[in-house]
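Example 9 (inverse folding). The structure is encoded as follows.
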């Protein structure tokens, strides 16, 4: 299914810069492998050649002097894991991570993504897409019950374009974000709706099992007309976040933080059977719902198993 394009005319940007210009500060808005596109404050842009593995990513603040790029220190870095276990930097200086889900999203995905965002010092928020479909109200009230105290939650339909305004307002608060979510939840559809200049391919339902789907590998940063910015990196959309560690899960699991500093007797407490565990005490007192604790224990088991497997393969 093809999403309609917004045909509003954009103002013509000033001419591109050339090598003879003095030192200028800008931000990398597109990465093409051997060159990057830099946008400057005044709206002008230019391409700058880089080495293939130069380490520059979209969102990097840079200075350009006569065709030479210098990267400035980063505020945040977001990483992903590829199919073979390699780790890649996705983008720099992001503020927020949009966790996109729909009814078919795997269990535990939101919790893992929230933990990963908090580790990377990004503010996580949840977008429930496909709310035009029947039977979403039950999903919504369940998610609201779990996450309302932890992260912003947006119920939308990319196809109907409903529920977008609160999301756009959130992004417009000076936020630079990126979307993560399993394939088929509607990330491309949503990006198309939010950034009409982007024109991404939306996969046909019949394409789901087609592993060879063509995707462009260019990472791009888009300014939203209402404010805020979105980064699109196809590899990230496909593969998702770097795995979280046991320590990170124990420290950042959504729902534990509402109770202030969790002061367990042991600093590296996994909240399982350790004496003096503040989380177990909160569960016993009824402050943390038993279902949430059960979900935590389930993910803890998976993360531990994943780490053991990774160690045996010597990935880390
Ligand atoms: P991605 O893999 O996460 O990028 O998902 P796509 O944007 O490619 O969408 C996957 C499928 O879900 C396509 O068939 C879309 O038309 C469909 N889809 C996307 N958003 C919505 C929505 O809000 N409602 C419904 N019913 N379908 C949607
Ligand atoms: Zn504990």
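The amino acid assigned to each position is listed next.
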């Amino acid at each position: 299914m093809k999403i309609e394009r917004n045909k509003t005319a954009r103002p013509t940007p000033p001419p591109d810069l050339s090598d003879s210009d003095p030192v200028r500060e800008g931000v990398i808005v597109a990465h093409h492998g051997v060159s990057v596109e830099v946008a400057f404050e005044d709206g002008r842009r230019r391409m700058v050649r880089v080495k293939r593995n130069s380490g520059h990513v979209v969102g990097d603040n840079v200075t350009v002097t006569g065709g030479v790029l210098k990267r400035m220190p980063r505020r945040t870095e977001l990483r992903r894991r590829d199919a073979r276990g390699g780790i890649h930097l996705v983008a720099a200086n992001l503020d927020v991570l949009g966790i996109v889900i729909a009814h078919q999203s795997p269990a535990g995905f939101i919790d893992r993504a929230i933990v990963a965002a908090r580790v990377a010092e990004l503010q996580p928020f949840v977008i429930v897409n496909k709310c035009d479909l029947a039977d979403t109200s039950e999903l919504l009230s369940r998610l609201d019950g779990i996450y309302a105290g932890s992260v912003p939650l947006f119920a939308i339909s990319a196809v109907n374009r409903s529920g977008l305004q609160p999301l756009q307002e959130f992004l417009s608060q000076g936020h630079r974000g990126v979307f993560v979510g399993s394939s088929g939840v509607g990330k491309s559809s949503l990006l198309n709706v939010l950034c009409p200049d982007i024109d991404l391919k939306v996969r046909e339902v019949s394409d789901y099992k087609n592993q060879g789907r063509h995707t462009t590998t260019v990472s791009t940063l888009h300014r939203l007309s209402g404010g805020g910015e979105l980064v699109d990196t196809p590899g990230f959309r496909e593969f998702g976040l770097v795995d979280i560690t046991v320590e990170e899960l124990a420290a950042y699991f959504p729902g534990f933080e509402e109770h202030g500093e969790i002061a367990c007797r042991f600093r590296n407490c996994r909240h399982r059977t350790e004496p003096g565990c503040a989380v177990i005490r909160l569960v016993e007192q009824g402050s943390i719902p038993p279902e949430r604790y059960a979900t935590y224990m389930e993910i803890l088991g998976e993360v531990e198993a994943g780490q053991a497997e990774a160690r045996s393969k010597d990935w880390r």
